[in-house]
Amino acid sequence: MGHQMRNKLRYCFYLLLTLASSSCALKKAQDFSRSKYLKEGYHLVWADEFNENGLPDPKNWTYEKGFVRNNELQWYQSENAYCQNGLLIIKAKQEQKSNPDFILDSKDWRKNRKDIDYTSACLITKDLQSWQYGRFEMRGKIDISAGLWPAFWTLGVQGDWPANGEIDIMEYYQEKLLANIASSGKNGKPKWFSQTKSITELGGKVWAEKFHVWRMDWDSNSISLYVDDLLLNKTPLADLDNDHQKGIHPFRQKHYILLNLAIGGMNGGDPKNTKFPNQFEVDYVRVYQK
């Protein structure tokens, strides 16, 4: 057998060992995620581990597009989201583009901005994946620079906002974490059940440099929101009925997931001194049910 042939065989054998090792590690991770909460009666029903480099899985995610809500500064576009080294990266960029929806003298803030100054991404499972009740979990790392507004949240599949219900499992802006739940109050305005936690109290920049686990436990009795097993908000479903559009209970229906990195707007603050590009990193998103 020639020297080159022996080298090729060695390389193929090494490649097979590497692939087998990687496959074994992935299987162990998947088995762990499935069995993690078995003692509490939970079984993994859906997950995205973001282990394949490239675009996020189209079976799980679509994207919001354009200017969407809250007078935020970013233009949402799918190209600002990608998977790399086992992480979903949602990248916020400072870049100027023309607003294709611009209309001179429009009263709609989405259309009266001539230019786009920032871009980012919002991934959603709407019309692809949705669940009623369960344990929703995300491991991620957020940047706490001024003007950034990352979020891991859900919306109900039926009804107009806020009657469809909103659950902010993780939301950050202006030096605080928020754990929010909203239904429809009188005259259709949102009725908020909110709790906040100071980033300084959690550990400030040192805390934000690490990955953390945000979790929601949602059943027919209540919604509980956590960060690293620290309970931030627990609200009974009996308090969350709609005062407006009473035919829909916002949290006795399926919800879909959203992951986004917003900039500025009504709550995000001023990003002018923040370094761009910036990013929200997600290790995994998992849904368990009993």
TrEMBL record:
Leader sequence residues: 1-27
Membrane-crossing residue ranges in chain numbering: none
* Domain (GH16) ranges: 30-290
| Alphabetic keyword roster | Signal
Q: Which Pfam families match?
A: Glyco_hydro_16
Q: Is Signal one of the keywords?
A: yes
For this protein, the record's SUPFAM superfamilies field holds: Concanavalin A-like lectins/glucanases
CDD domains from the entry?
A: GH16_laminarinase_like
Q: So what family is this one in?
A: Belongs to the glycosyl hydrolase 16 family.
Q: What is this protein called?
A: GH16 domain-containing protein
**From which organism does this entry originate?**
Pedobacter psychrotolerans
